[in-house]
Amino acid sequence: MKIVDVAVGVIKRQDMIYVSKRADTLHQGGLWEFPGGKKEADETIAQALIRELFEEVNIQVLNPIPLMVIEHDYGDKKVRLDVMLVEEFSGEPSSQENQLSRWVKIADLAQYDFPAANLSIIEKLQQLAS
Known about the structure:
By secondary structure, this protein is α+β, with helices and mostly antiparallel strands. The protein is 18% helix and 38% strand. It has two helices and nine strands, in the order E-E-E-E-H-E-E-E-E-E-H. Strands 1, 2, 3, 4, 6, 7 and 9 form a seven-stranded mixed sheet that branches. Strands 5-8 form a two-stranded antiparallel sheet. Its EC number is 3.6.1.55. Residues 1-129 form the Nudix hydrolase domain.
C-alpha cells in the first residue's frame, strides 16, 4: 500500500491552536484537523506546508519548525504526517474551503474529535505547554 505524505501545520498563537473541521465527504470526514495537505512529488515538506496553508487558510508561513513525524495505518490508507509548528506567519487564518474553523486552547484540544493519527500531536502540544 502506498504511503500518502502529508504536510501538517500546527498554527500556534500563545496558548491557542488553529483547527478546522473536515468536510463530511472526505476521508475521516466530520473530524477536526490541523491544516495541511498532500505533498506533491516535486515539493519538499516545507514547500508543501507553505502552499497548503496559503490555499487552505490564507496565511504566509514564515518559519515552520519540524515538530514530529507520524506514520499511521487507517486500514484503507497509510499516511506519513510531517508535522510542523507554525508560530511565525503573516495574515489571519481563515478557512478558504468553507470549513468550520476556530482557535482552541491547547488544554481544550482533547475535547475535540480528531483522526487517530492526530492524537499524538495533541499529546506533544500538551507536553510542550506544561
